[in-house]
Specification:
The protein is of the alpha/beta class. It folds into two domains: 156 residues, 3-Layer(aba) Sandwich (Rossmann fold), CATH 3.40.50.720; 169 residues, Dihydrodipicolinate Reductase, domain 2 (2-Layer Sandwich). The protein has eleven helices and 15 strands. α4 runs parallel beside α5 and α5 runs antiparallel to α11. The longest helix has 20 residues. It starts with a strand and ends with a strand. The mean pLDDT is 96.
């Protein structure tokens, strides 16, 4: 196709507003419509939007000149001027809007997780395979420059055989944020286990493949109503490697956001931490790569740039993530939840 891809964004919370700015500034896209139930946001008043990383200054009104506004998402989906639907609403609404977008013959980009449960995700998977348009899920860590670089290093065996890996994602708690405080309602968000920790579970899946079993420990009901607000998990690959992750939003609201990893091979170590991104080799040599493209500084920028190029070039967007893999990552998360609930090792069923 030629010309700019015409985008409609549904949901103007932290991620929707982040996506808006990326599309607005990208030479291959044009935001033509937005939808939200909050009329103030549709007027350009985004002062109440907050997030846990990379917050923008929303003190000034957003210029929405030339952008059609909808209070009904389905009306936006059926707008004939829109080619790409970007869904950034609470998780329980993902399936409805994904299916509606594909049925309307639109490309669909949906924020993670694809759905609340694997059964729904499988239904979407089977439906999407029958459609001509593309569906991509916003697992931004697969696109994040340091994670993508580390993935390539691991696959090249530059640091040798993997001995251990720890992935960590800690957020200030989100109590009081979002539509009707939905993050703190476990039936809606899946709590920190699904809405936050999923990133690292999926990263481990991406780096090392499908684990056989998981052993998880969780802190329940500390921030959310009855959800898992902090989790520690070991992923068993039936080899000598020790693979762990830790994630949660249990810290106080003013705490800093942290995303980090430590991957140890028998020839070297890759580390992302507050001190930066480094590769440390067994002989003492240290590399400090800077994999970020100045024009694509975050995984959000990279994933949207990638999708827009796929649409323009008629290439299915499955280089970084397939919907099948997204379903598998949800299966791992559900096994982690069972492990916490039943206090035992859980074998993961992927089919």
């Amino acid at each position: 196709m030629t010309g700019k891809t015409k985008v409609g964004i549904i949901g103007l919370g932290f991620m929707g507003s982040t996506h808006f700015r990326i599309y607005r500034d990208h030479p291959m896209s044009e935001v033509k419509a937005i939808a939200d139930i909050d009329n103030a946001k549709l007027r350009g008043d985004w002062r109440k939007i907050v997030g846990n990383i990379g917050n923008e200054d929303n003190s000034q009104p957003i210029d929405l000149t030339g952008i059609t506004t909808y209070s009904n998402a389905l009306e936006l989906i059926h707008d004939p001027d829109i080619q790409l639907i970007d869904i950034c609403v609470p998780t329980p609404y993902h399936k409805e809007y994904i299916m509606a977008g594909l049925k309307a013959d639109k490309h669909v980009f949906c924020e993670k997780p694809i759905t609340r449960k694997t059964l729904e995700a499988k239904e979407i998977l089977e439906f999407s395979k029958k459609q001509n348009k593309y569906l991509m899920i916003g697992m931004c860590i697969r696109f994040w420059p340091e994670y993508q670089h580390a993935y390539q290093v691991v696959k090249s065996e530059k640091i040798g055989k993997i001995k251990s890996a720890t992935f960590k994602r800690i957020s200030p708690n989100l109590d009081g944020n979002g539509w009707e405080n939905w993050f703190m309602k476990a039936k809606l968000s899946g709590s920190a286990l699904l809405d936050l920790h999923l990133h690292d579970t999926d990263a481990i899946h991406y780096f090392f493949g499908k684990p056989k079993t998981v052993t998880s420990f969780g802190l329940k009901g500390f921030r959310s109503d009855h959800g898992i607000d902090h989790v520690l998990t070991r992923y068993d690959y039936e080899n000598e490697s020790l693979i762990f992750s830790e994630g949660g939003w249990s810290p106080a609201g003013g705490s800093p956001f942290e995303m980090s990893f430590l991957i140890v091979g028998d020839k070297g170590t890759i580390r992302l931490s507050e001190t930066g991104y480094k590769i440390i080799y067994e002989d003492g040599t240290i590399e400090t790569p800077n994999p970020a493209n100045p024009g694509l500084p975050t995984g959000w920028h990279v994933e949207i740039d990638y999708l827009l190029k796929c649409i323009q070039q008629n290439i299915r967007p499955d280089k970084y993530l397939t919907i099948d893999e997204m379903v598998e990552s949800l299966a791992i998360i559900e096994a982690e939840e069972r492990s916490i609930e039943e206090n035992k090792v859980i074998e993961i069923i992927y089919s």
